[in-house]
Sequence to fold (203 residues):
Amino acid sequence: MCEAGRIRHHLKHNLWRKEASIVFVGYQAEGTLGSRLLEGEKCVKLFGEDIKVNAEIYNVEGFSGHADKPALLNWIGSFKEKPGKIFIVHGEKDSKEDFAKEVKDKFNINSIIPEYNVVYDIKKKNVINEVFLETEKQKIKDKQIKELLKEVEELKKTFENALTNTEGCLRLEDINIDKYKKINNNIKSLENEIMNLTIISAK
Fold:
């Protein structure tokens, strides 16, 4: 589908050539570069470069390696023990929905068309939805915030120790008051950041 691999190099070096031909012999999913070329897009970006499409674009149907609808229906109908549910994961949205309806009408089997960010635990026959995933993501985020807080706290202590250790060694005339104030302000800023992060992690 022209999204990865050597084909992208071939396209970069040939799409702009009027004497070149690009022949598609397989299914091109919606939104992919292959699909956009078939739809007639006149300029595409490859490796950060805008490439004008001057080559002839052809589509030869019938070479797809996937079973068509009648073959899939025949395969489902050949099961001695009928499946509990069927997952439909390939194809455009409308075709998947049409196929699910036909499976239901013909075999009385419900189909699932998985949506983005939904997890299915087949062994437990559970559907773990987006809310679960968001909770897991929040746990990871909270852990990262705690680790960051720990690092910031250690950094703050290092600064404080450095200032304490130099207090008795420097003469007053050696101290740059502006630099001292700047360091002190940075420490106070760090303290505020720690406070903010603590509030965020507590929510």
In short: The chain has six helices and eight strands. Strands lie at 21-24, 43-46, 49-52, 56-59, 85-87, 110-112, 119-121, 126-128. The mean pLDDT is 78. The chain has three domains: 7-59, 69-114, 131-202.
